[in-house]
Amino acid sequence: MDDTATVDLVRELVLRLLSSGGRSSTASNNSDAAVRYALRLLSSRMSPSVIPDELSLVESIKRRLAVSGRSSSALGFADLHSKLSARAPLLNRWALLYLLNSLSLDRHRPESSPAPGLPFLPLHLPHPPRTSASSIAGGMAGGGVFLVAKDPENIREIALREYADLFMEDNEVSESALVRDVLYACQGIDGRYVRFDRSTDGYDMPESLKVPKPTRSIVRRLCELGWLFRKVRGYISEGIVDRQFDIGTVGQAFCSSLQDELVDYYKLLTVLTSQSANPIPSAGSDSGGGAGNYLSLRRLAVWLAEPTVRMRLMAVLVDVCGELRGGAMAGAIHSHAQHGNPLVQEFMGRLLRRVCSPLFEMVRIWVLEGELEDVFAEFFILSQPVKAESLWREGYQIQSSMLPSFISPLLAQRILRTGKSINFLRVCCEDNGWVEASGEAVAHVGATTQRGGLGYGDTNALEALVVEAAKRIDRHLMDVIHKRYRFKDHCLAIKRYLLLGQGDFVKYLMDIVGPELSEPANTISSFQLAGLLETAIRASNAQYDDREILDRLKVRMMEHGDGDRGWDVFSLEYDARVPLDTVFTALNMKRYLKIFNFLWKLKRVEHALTGLWKTVKPNYINSCIFANESFGVKMQFVSVLRRLQVLWNEMNHFVTNFQYYIMFEVLEVSWAHFSDGMNSSKDLDDLLAAHDKYLYSILEKSLLGEGSQSINKTLFVLFDHILRFRSLADRWFEHIHELQHRRNKSKSKSKGELGKVGSLIDGGRKALLQFSRDFFGKMSEELDKVAKEYSAALHDFISQLPLQQHIDLKFLLFRLDFTEYYSRVSSNK
Amino acid sequence: MEATGGQIAKETLELAFQISNMLETGLDRHTLSLLIALIDRGINPEPLSAVVRELSSPPSRTQPPSAFSSSAKP
């Protein structure tokens, strides 16, 4: 024993016990012997052989008290115990309670039952631990709380020992070696027993190894993690090391985020490896605490459960992204992020934030500055080098294969349009005001113009930024287009000149240019025509128009073949420069040209008819023709003239109504719609669409579209008839006037020489009659022919009109045929 | 502190005495205080209880003290 103080205490105790035990006061050697005995007893066992668990001891005491019928004592004991715990926390309460308990048990033990342990105690002082275990088992049968209390014959111990021996036999390989191998496999390295088998594409132990089946299966299950790890690591090394130039920035971000996840994984494996160095307690030994954190296969399975889930997720992503790049990869990963498990969601969120950061950066730069920084072609906007005038329409396009799925097509369109507008402003308009616009947009949204301001999961923020930027830049673009380039003015100018809106100018032009254009086409010089154009401009109200606009108006001679008259090749053209030629493209100008030709022809026909009227109208001059002639001649003349006038009237009715229809119902209405569209369009795309719609509606309604080609031909046939009629009528009247003139001359001549030329008069009158009869007969025949042809063509035209699709053409039909005269005539035929 | 330490010790002894009465161990205060002191010194209670039992049992024991005194000699 240790120190004298303890010895003194023991001595005092022994003396007290001996004296209280009712013996006579002993001799000193008796007490000495007793003291020595006591000391030996105390030194035989220095540490308790049961676990010092205070609480279970307390419980057992309470139970014993309650069972023996003294439940009030049990409660009292509990109370005292709690007070003791509060009062004296430092006291070894367990020891005290154990002592008191064992003493009370001893007291209550009936004397008859032998306590085999007690008398043996002194004899068994120096004895090996094993038998002490059994004796303790015997001695503490009633008082011990744990472990070996129920086993007086130690059966359990023996069974455990046998099992341990059997277990050792069965296993060739120790469990700790297997654990180490599994840990190696999880890092992709082949261990001593567990190797990667290429044929089965998995980790496995060779069959020859004598390992029980459950162990084999658990090892195989744990090595799945190793297989997954190999796959992920293979992808990363390929991406970063080998295919570095192909994988693109998004792929690189993906690989680096995978590597970060793997760092955590490596850390865990390191910890596990260090733990695996601790010896695993074998099957038969006490697992009583204090053996350190050992690592068995089962514990390893528990530890590796969560990393396996994560690694599996990473391997699935690696599979999915095998050959993808850029936005497509981001979209594929995003589609796997729609998962309910919060662990998976958090993991995918981390991953996606990093993967999408290059994409979002590209979007931000594109939307705010119009630059495309896309070395690896991963962005969903492609640029192509084109000329300035087709920059808007073809310069940039969306490549939908690279569009990630979390950006909707509408948003993508907006993004495209915003960047296009910036480029358009920069290139075509040479304007730099958009910088403020984009700065304002950013300030409004609250994002930064720095890198990394946006991330995945911030799709709302991205959308807000894009919408703001789009709004402002579009507004700025519209301002520039309307104010600086005066788009509306140019459109109006085109309408006035190319679409013959400026009536007085057109009339003058036609008057002046008309005689020129009747010549064959190859004799006309365009310079002369340009000069005539200038004259016409100066003569009309057009001279007050803006010089800049008038400068753009030019004459153009189209290609001509032989036999073409000037009328067929003459046209005006308007020169639209950058940037307005985005709207007035070559194709659009061709359409304008077509419409101009049509309108010009129509105007020519109208001009011809009005010119004819000057000759044919029933006025005094005409009624004086042949006034003095014989009745027959006059009658013939008058009837022919009347028929001429009637035909003229029909033609005029047609031409006037048709022209009215074209001028007002087609041109003006379309212009009104286009004006509205121009004012309400928020960006250049809308403007282009409005303009295209305008042109298209004009073409359709004036029978110039593809669906109306047959009726168009009929219309031109009609025009030809009318023009022929005009020239015919002109010729006739020339004849008549010449005849009349000759008659007057001969009359006056005959008046002068009365007697001499009497026969002439007579001869003249008869000749005149004959001549006039012939002439008027021929004339009326021709007139009939023309009239018939004309009405056939008109009937043709009117019958084809209802077949047209456009609804406004029904109004034309109504105008032309409101009394249904023609329809009735045709139905009567 | 000394005073309260003594106070605590007294109260502890009182409580322990009440517990031992409840369990009917038959110990008195003085013996109990000695036992507590020994336990505080780290003595294992198992043999201690054996000692107490041995030495406080009535002298109707089969083994006379003289018998073991001879065997107790190392």
TrEMBL record, chain A:
Family matches, as InterPro entries: GCP, GCP_C, GCP_C_sf, GCP_N
Alphabetical UniProt keywords: Cytoplasm, Cytoskeleton, Microtubule
Pfam family membership, one: GCP_C_terminal
Domain Gamma tubulin complex component C-terminal per the UniProt entry, residue ranges: 489-822
Location in the cell: Cytoplasm, Cytoskeleton
Record domain Gamma tubulin complex component protein N-terminal: where: 179-482
Family stated for the protein in its record: Belongs to the TUBGCP family.
The protein, known as: Gamma-tubulin complex component
Origin species: Platanthera guangdongensis
TrEMBL record, chain B:
Record's subcellular location: Cytoplasm, Cytoskeleton, Microtubule organizing center
UniProt xrefs under Pfam families: MOZART1
Keywords recorded for this protein, A-Z: Cytoplasm, Cytoskeleton
Biased composition (Polar residues): 57-74
Chain segments carrying region Disordered: 53-74
Keyword Cytoplasm: yes
Location (main, coarse): cytoplasm
UniProt KW Cytoplasm keyword: yes
Family statement: Belongs to the MOZART1 family.
PANTHER family xref list: MITOTIC-SPINDLE ORGANIZING PROTEIN 1
Protein name: Mitotic-spindle organizing protein 1
